[in-house]
Known about the structure:
Layout: E1 3-4, H1 5-8, E2 14-23, E3 28-31, E4 33-34, E5 48-52, E6 58-67, E7 70-76, E8 86-91, H2 93-117, E9 121-127, E10 130-135, H3 144-157, E11 162-168, H4 169-172, H5 176-180, E12 192-198, E13 202-205, E14 219-227, E15 233-240
Parallel strand pairs: 1-4
Antiparallel strand pairs: 2-3, 2-8, 3-7, 5-6, 5-8, 6-7, 9-10, 10-15, 11-12, 12-13, 14-15
Helix pairs in contact: 2-3
The structure holds zinc ion.
Zinc ion binds near residues 41, 42, 103, 206 and 208.
Amino acid sequence: MTQLLCLDDAYLREFTATVVAVDAEASRVALDRSAFYPTGGGQAHDTGTLAWDDGGTVATVTDVRKDGDVVWHTITGAPLPAQGTRVTGTLDWERRHQLMRTHTAMHILCGVVWNEWGTLVTGSNMDPLSARMDFEFDPLPDGFKERLEQLANDAIAADHRIEVSLLGRAIALTDDDLIRTKVNLIPESVTEIRVVDIVGLDKQADGGTHVRSTREVGRLEITKLESKGKGNKRVRVAIHDA
Ligand SMILES: [Zn+2]
């Protein structure tokens, strides 16, 4: 089992760990703890390096996947270490921080669209500093693009705090915000629900990494609106430095 350090501290960039399993065929290693975020919940994996405690060997981490409770790190540029090797992991922080800003920006969009138009997200995808979200609209309200961009940037400027907590499943199932964002679809085997709360704006069950407050996102631009069939409109966004 791998302890997911990134879920406790999204700002941890460097950590030490022990190699607990080696998969030579796939050129990947499992660690007892890791700050590398594994692909999931719409957020892409981190990249970075693993350095062996032999003083010289450094491998590049190109992919990170969770398989059950174990996080596997695909590496290139060095022979695989032996099980038991102590390593230091270092994240590509620029990429990770861009993903955090983008992920938080998407939750901001969820919140302002719900508050203004009472409409839910139907799908989304994100890359570092760009993303798309689909909403149930038919047709789009007049002036939607300008209004949405304004509301999102107002929410960023208001600098809402972002709090991450664990809620017991029974309690989570009584929370209106969590019900609306379909907390009931999380498998029943999950007894503790991780909640990401943009205080005063948006609250949902989420397994991703987020910035500490909304101002850190930067500036949000709506780059394009597309129609994806009846009742489904796609919003494309770009995130810029403030
Ligand atoms: Zn999310």
